[in-house]
Amino acid sequence: MGGLDDLYQELILDHYRRRRNEGALDRPSVAVDHSNPLCGDEIHLEILVEDGRVARVGHTGQGCSISQAAASMMSEAVTGLPLQDALDLVEHFRLVMHGSEPGDEERLGDAIALEGVAKYPVRVKCALLAWMALKDAIETYRRSTN
Ligand code: ZN
Predict the structure, then answer these.
(1) Is the dihedral of CA 97, 100, 103, 108 positive or negative?
(2) pLDDT, mean of residues 23-32
(3) Cα 144 to ligand 1 centroid, rounded to whole Å
(4) 117 CA to middle of ligand 1, Å?
């Protein structure tokens, strides 16, 4: 397991240094701001919804490597998904972070690297920040279009 953890650690640092989908979108359908005061993590998340799918994700923020890498990983995992599938994936990730479900690498992609964070309760909020922001963004979008 030691080698696997090292690999995951590298993946987290890679996403932290080269954040995928970082930045603002031209015409976001919805934008939300979330923070994790325990650690000082902040995220501004924007999504573009097209044809009932998460067409694009943009994020900016600051904070620890786990929180920012998680935003990058989440953006890759959910881009292209129907809204309900994206919400289901958020719930799956939440259960993984609480140690209630094993991570599904096929659905999580690189975010599987965060599975080990579940062992460190104080960091779980860091890993969850971007995912909870996504959930909020999708629910806000749904309310605005109903
Ligand atoms: Zn943090």
Answers:
(1) negative
(2) 97
(3) 30
(4) 11
CA-CA distance, 72 to 110, in Å (whole number)? 9
Name the helix (H) or strand (E) containing 120.
Answer: none
Residue 58: what residue type? G
Q: What pLDDT, in 10s, does the model give residues 73-82?
A: 999 999 999 9
In single-letter form, the type of residue at position 84 comes to: Q
Domains of the chain plus CATH, in order, are 4-145 (3.90.1010.10)
Tens-digit pLDDT profile for residues 128-140: 999 999 999 999 9
At 145, list the tokens. 């279009």
Sign of the dihedral through C-alpha 93, 77, 71, 75: negative
62 Cα: distance to centroid of ligand 1 (angstroms): 9
Instruction: Please report where in the chains the tokens 């719930």 appear, as a residue.
Output: 91
Cα–Cα distances (Å) from 39 to 27, 79, 126, in that order, read: 30, 27, 7
Alpha carbon distance 63, 48 (integer Å): 24
